[in-house]
Amino acid sequence: MPPLYRKIADELREQIINGVLKPGDHLPTESKLQDLHRVSRNTVRLATAVLINEGLVESMPGRTGGIIVRDRVTLAFHASRAEMPGPVSESDAWFSEVRDQGHEPTQTFELRIAEVPDGLAERLGVPADSPAAVRRCVRAVNGQPSSIQDTYYPMDLCDQVPELLSPRDIPQGTTRLLAERGHPQIAYDDEIIAAMPAPDEVTTLALAAGTPVLRWLRTGYTPDRPVRVSVSTFAADRNRLLYTLGDPDVIAKVRASEDPQ
Fold first, then answer.
1. How far apart are CA 110 and CA 168, in angstroms?
2. Distance between CA atoms of residues 159 and 141, nearest Å
3. Of 74, 80, 147, 182, which residue is least crowded by CB atoms under 10 Å?
């Protein structure tokens, strides 16, 4: 039999998931939960701590703050569509995808020169600690941080394509830029990892205690070599990664035929 605090947490979680408790609603006070479940204050606090660690609720400061249900937007990110060749840049495609889901996207950009970590150096085929240009986008949905993307480009590639060292976002996107300069990416190697965030990721993504992240590593290959590694870190409580393999037109056609008329 589960501990009492787990039972209380389960009941509150079900109310949040089913919409009985909506974003912005206060949880019942500690005294009400004590009376309802005939438990101690410590048991109630253990129950609400579970929900805080899951990112479902947050504790508000002040005498009238209490614990409220968080307003969480879960974004569907179509990883198989990202960076597809075409007239639209990667940033524009992401902006469109977010707006199509009824939300408002924003992003900030920065460039730095940094050493390539060991694991990524192997992917890039360069010695560990080699310098690379790192282009970072921090993306937000409705003003709430959602993901961080760090893309590493070897310095010898930057010598050939100096625009990669621009301190501003590239209008046509780096995928199209590289293709225009003779470095078309024709293959990708993806890896998705669930992990606990590093301290700087907790700060940048404004993560609640105990919230994990999803890391999506993509290595882009030309016919001759790997040219970049992108590490996208998603707040796991706000994102879903979706893939479509094969011919997407077939899937769309089948789904359309199944829609009720």
1. 7
2. 35
3. 182
Cβ neighbours, 10 Å, residue 2: 8
pLDDT tens per residue across span 198-215: 999 999 999 877 789 999
pTM here?
0.78
Cα distance between the two ends of the chain: 49
The whole-angstrom separation of Cα 133 and Cα 174 is: 12
pLDDT tens per residue across span 175-191 = 999 999 999 999 999 99
